Structures are given as structure tokens and as C-alpha cells.
Amino acid sequence: MKLQPIMTVDELNSFLDTDFPQVHTDGKVFAVTGAGPGFATMRLDPNERHIRPGGTVSGPTLFALADVSAYIALIAHIGPIALAVTTNLNINFLRKPEPEPLECTCRILKLGKRLAVLDASITPVGSDELVAHATATYSIPPR
Fold first, then answer.
1. Domain coordinates in residue numbering, the chain
2. Within a 10 A sphere around the Cβ of 2, how many other Cβ atoms?
3. Cα–Cα 20 to 30 A to 92, which of 35, 69, 98, 128?
């Protein structure tokens, strides 16, 4: 599968700002950092709202990072289709993430006309130690 993104990192961040501003409810903690053939990367800079007792990034925050990253990887390759929606997302929490910046790399495993299957790996920025791994399926609306 030879996928090429059709949106740039700047266009993807702009799309989040204009079409999905809810992602910035807690301030700009999510940012698209890369897009390439079959993948996209995002960064999360957690704030106090994202930390749970015990000093770790919360599970719902990691889930959101995986989900938004999958959405960005998909639209980077199909264009700014706001109504592409998650139909399934499974996540495994593997290690306690420290309250520090995290990066999610999301790869497209299959891109069909109506469904896409993606894989998301979350690590601390600058590390390759997985803290969470997710798989997602997205429904793509008919054109």
C-alpha cells in the first residue's frame, strides 16, 4: 500500500483549530507534528487536568490522543472530511506514563472506500518505550 498524505502538518493543525476546536478545550495540548506515507504523528503536552492521582497521565487522555491521532492520520490521506468517525477503538495501557509530553505515531494499516484500520503507538517524546498501543477503525462517509 503506497499511501501519500495530501495535507501538510500546517493544514492539519489548521483543520483542528477551525473544524475541531473542541480538541483545544483544555488549551492547545494536542499538536500534529508529522505526516508521511501512511502515517501521522501527534504530540500531547499534558496539563493538570490530564494527570490522575498517583502522578500519571490518565487513561481517558491516552485514549483521546490515540483517537485524535488516528483521525489526523486518516484525514491527512483522504482530505479534510469532518464526518469520518470512529467505529471502534481498542487500547492497551502498557506502562505508567509520567506526566510529560507524549507522542503518538499512527499508521494506516488498511484504507478502503468506506473503512480504514489504523494502529497507534504512544511513547514519551524522545523515547521508543511504549506506554500504550491502540487499534482503531474509522468509517469514511460516501463522497
1. 9-139
2. 5
3. 35
CA end-to-end distance (rounded Å), the chain: 21
Q: Pull the grid cell for residue 15.
A: 483543520
Q: What are phi and psi of 57, to 5 degrees?
A: -70, 135
Hey, what CATH class is 9-139 in?
alpha beta
Cα separation of 76 and 73, whole Å?
5
**Cα–Cα dist 38/41, whole Å:** 11
DSSP string for 10-69: HHHHHHHHHH-GGGGTTSS-EEEEEEETTEEEEEE---GGGEETTTEE-HHHHHHHHHHH
Question: Residue 59 contacts by C-beta under 8 Å, 6 or more apart in sequence?
Answer: 52, 91, 93
pLDDT at 1: 58
pLDDT tens per residue, range 27-48: 889 999 999 999 999 999 999 8
